[in-house]
Design a protein that fits this description.
The complex is a heterodimer of chains A (about 240) and B (about 180). Chain A has about 240 residues and is α+β, with helices and mostly antiparallel strands. Chain A has 7 helices and 10 strands. The complex binds iron/sulfur cluster (2 copies).
Chain lengths: ~240, ~180
């Protein structure tokens, strides 16, 4: 009987199935690597870089990098944690995140990572960029102020809803999410039951009229950090 | 040994963070045992009487007076703490940063649906502190030593933080006390 191939993650041997990424192998072994743009069931995208690890000495995103036999992976090192924290801080300052009035607060993965990493204030200047809100659809709204360009809605709409409601336009700092068949969400075939809406990790894509349903103190990330066994299940729902 | 002195102020905030400080309830008696309040709305002292160990800043900077007071706190306090989302991020007042200042004033004093202002002038009396181009978090104006986010930070958060600071201990908030809302 031949043993499963394995790699070494922070000194611990974990098995993987050939074809898996480092992140998938870590998830299966019950080891949490922080991430935002990755969501189980979606094709890896590798845009947020929060899942950064060092694999055989190279700095890579663990959600896109294939696991290989005997690979030595570092994740929970002070250096990598510091990199992740900086990436999160940049996400906070480059959008407009008013958590105190956001429907997603307490359910938001970006905010939850801020808590997990103990971010009390970002070291960068707030950009206060000009971003639009698209509230044209009767049941769904896009608040670009909070969008982190993770493409979870794009991939979910395309691969799970079979629709292609969302896409990106522009490049670099001008890149933004767009309704792909028209300029406004109301011109698309987006529907309130689309799984794409649940895929958004932040408060950028929301169902109307259902916010603030869970009392403060009982929301998923009020008392338990993201990546702790229970809330990870919650986030994957 | 004399008690350490604590000063507090509300810049561009709503006083909610100060209300949260009062929300420590009877623990305020214990606090009064170990600290002396200097300049603060709590005792209505308008200026510093001497150097302070800790300064608590509520609110960000929206006008020239906010900047003046904040700089004075930096000068007079050994440790300066941003308290609440307005101090740490600009908060709700920073919503105006998404609109050019001129448009903002025009809406507030000239064009707004409930405005009665026959002169059509935006108030410009030299007594009124000059508005800044946008609202700035406190740490973008002076060096801030610790940040306590929250809208407002809970009484427990403020209590834990004050105790740690006054005891010279490292400030390590438990998970449930670090919140952005
Ligand atoms: S999307 Fe998340 S981080 Fe942004 S304002 Fe809402 S709760 Fe805060
Ligand atoms: S709307 Fe949400 S899911 Fe879509 S790209 Fe923006 S942050 Fe990601």
């Amino acid at each position: 009987m031949s043993a499963d191939p394995s790699l070494i993650l922070d000194g611990r041997e974990i098995p993987f199935v050939p074809g898996q990424t480092i992140l998938q192998a870590a998830d299966d072994a019950g080891v949490y690597i922080p991430r935002l743009c990755d969501k189980p069931g979606l094709e890896p995208f590798g845009s947020c870089r929060v899942c950064v690890v060092r694999a055989n000495g190279r700095t890579v995103s663990s959600c896109t990098y294939p696991a290989s036999l005997g690979m030595v992976v570092e994740s929970e090192t002070p250096e990598l944690q510091a990199m992740r924290k900086v990436l999160l801080e940049m996400l906070f300052v480059e959008g407009n995140h008013f958590c105190m009035s956001c429907e997603k607060s307490g359910h938001c993965e970006l905010q939850a990572l801020g808590y997990r990493f103990g971010i009390t204030a970002p070291q960068f200047e707030y950009q206060f960029p000009h971003r639009e809100v698209d509230a044209s659809h009767p049941d769904i709204l896009i608040d670009h102020n909070r969008c982190i360009l993770c493409a979870r809605c794009v991939r979910t709409s395309r691969d799970l809803d079979g629709k292609e409601v969302f896409g990106f336009v522009g490049r670099g700092p001008h890149k933004r999410l767009a309704a792909s068949t028209g300029s406004r969400l109301k011109d698309t075939n987006a529907d309130v039951t689309d799984r794409a809406i649940d895929a958004c990790p932040v408060g950028a894509l929301l169902r109307k009229r259902v916010g603030f349903a869970v009392p403060v103190g009982q929301r998923p990330y009020d008392t338990v950090p993201i990546g702790a066994p229970e809330p990870v299940q919650e986030a994957r729902r | 040994m004399s008690k350490p002195r604590v000063a507090t102020t509300s810049l561009c905030g709503c006083f909610g963070c100060h209300m949260s400080l009062l929300d420590i309830d009877e623990r305020i008696l214990a606090l009064a045992e170990i600290v002396e309040f200097d300049k603060s709305p709590i005792n209505d002292h308008k200026d510093f009487t001497q150097r302070c160990a800790v300064g608590l800043i509520e609110g960000g900077c929206a006008n020239a007076e906010n900047v003046h007071v904040l700089r004075r706190f930096r000068e007079m306090c050994d440790v300066l703490v941003s308290v609440g989302d307005c101090a740490t991020t600009g908060g709700i007042p920073a919503l105006r940063n998404l609109v050019p200042l001129g448009e903002c004033l025009h809406e507030a004093y000239v064009a707004g649906p409930s405005v009665h202002n026959p002169s059509g002038r935006v108030p410009d009396d030299p007594e009124i502190p000059l508005l800044l181009d946008k609202v700035y978090p406190a740490h973008e104006v002076v060096k801030i030593d610790f940040h306590l986010p929250g809208c407002p930070p809970s009484a427990d958060t403020l209590w834990e933080a004050l105790n740690a600071l006054l005891a010279g201990k490292p400030l390590a908030l438990p998970y449930a006390l670090l919140k952005y809302d």
